[in-house]
Amino acid sequence: GMLLKSARETAQIGKRLGVQRLNLHGTGLGDGGIPIAQTQVVSGAMWLKAKDTLNRICDMAEKEGVNFTLENLNLLDHPGCPFGSTADVLALVSAVNRPQLRINLDLYHTQIGEGDLVRWCEKCLPWIGEVQVADNPGRFEPGTGEINYQGVASALKEMGYRGPVAMEAFASGDAEKALDSFRAAFA
Asked: Which residue numbers in the chain have pLDDT < 50?
């Protein structure tokens, strides 16, 4: 109920702004990104309900002419989040398997949760709607941490990904230099 209502409002605002790809969080996040309702164990019944709800969101999105991307998170930053792994979000999105729902593949979260970024890009490729990047540790721009984003960018290009790549990061210093680092990694 609440997620569908929120998704419908987001779709309508997106249409007014001319935005067709909208990010969807499967759980409400409170202060510091902590889920409002924490879930330590996600049951099969909960996943079936999630799939049903996402299909209903896809029905609405199809009527509204928009698409949603479901973002993978990580359990270190978002303890108790039911969408706290790339594997689970991929399983859910691929089970729904509709063009109105794609993965917002957040590589910062994947690095913390699973690592092996290029292989996760390959596994998720048919369902990627957007790739988000930030380096780890610190969630700063590419080039400040352990992730070889030039290598990841090259692999994405080689596997045929031509969709959007967004930086969701803090600037480690000067904001313009942070943007330049992002552009350099994904040029």
From this structure: none
Q: Which sign, positive or negative, has the C-alpha torsion 104, 108, 109, 111?
A: positive
Candidates 125, 128, 139, 3; CA nearest to 60 is: 3
**Residues designated catalytic:** 71, 168
CB 135 within 8 A of CB 182: no
Q: What is the pLDDT of residue 35?
A: 63
Q: Return the pLDDT at 43.
A: 86
Q: Which residue intervals of 125-174 are DSSP H helices?
A: 149-158
Sheet of strand 128-133, all strands in order from the earlier edge strand to the far edge: 21-24, 67-71, 101-106, 128-133, 165-167
Structure tokens at 113: 């949760």
Given this model, what pLDDT does residue 140 score? Answer: 98
- 151: how many CB neighbours lie within 10 A of its CB? 12
For residues 89 and 50, give the distance between their C-alpha atoms in angstroms, rounded to a whole number.
11
Residues with Cβ < 8 Å from 13, sequence gap 6 or more? none
Q: What is residue 23's three-state secondary structure?
A: strand
pTM, full prediction: 0.94
